[in-house]
Amino acid sequence: MATTPSAEFDVYSYLPLSRDQLGAAADLARRFTVEYGTYSYNDAVGRADRLKAFTTVEFGDDLTRTVTSPAAVEHDTADQIVSKGKARLKSIRDMSANSVVVVVEGTAEITALSGAKNQVEDYAVTVVQVGADWRVYDLQLARSGQDGDVSP
User: Fold this and answer.
1) 129 in a domain, yes or no?
2) Staple 47 to which of 34, 39, 42, 100, CB 3.0 to 4.6 Å?
3) In Å, what is the CA distance from 24 to each residue of 18, 60, 99?
């Protein structure tokens, strides 16, 4: 027979991160995913700059190359894509003393010449501690079986 733990039971004392640390990491993953899904066809550089505010230097540079690539810009411009991102935390996949992999459901509410649509994806967002801050280190599709990259 299962019993309910007493009010003094603190599950966080068994985890490698405090409640505040875990909350900060998960919130960063959520806010990043919102920003990842928010963009306009005529502002790829602005999108890259906004994403870099959340990331490690290396991952920010990778994202910049991706979102400002000629193929991505040409695709978005041809269809005049404008997207508003939303995000919802789903689960924690992994955690250590200095990293957390959070599964976040991201929704991109897209308007374009081809019509309006919502794109929904689950992402494995790896957040690492850099000094006193948390930064996004990696973003992968969660459905591909990717657990996130936990080896910065």
Assistant:
1) yes
2) 39
3) 10, 19, 11
In this structure, is residue 64 part of a structural domain?
Answer: yes
Provide Rg for the chain, Cα atoms.
18
Query: So what's the pLDDT on residue 123?
Result: 97
Q: How many CB atoms lie within 10 A of CB 129?
A: 19
Could you read off the pLDDT of 11-44 as tens digits, one per residue? 888 888 999 999 999 999 999 999 999 999 999 9
Residues linked to residue 137 through DSSP beta bridges, in sequence order: none
Threshold 0.85, pTM exceeds: yes
Q: Does residue 152 lie within any of the structural domains? A: no
Whichever domain contains 93, its CATH number is: 3.10.450.230
Total domains present in the chain: 1
**Which one is predicted more confidently, 14 or 106?**
106
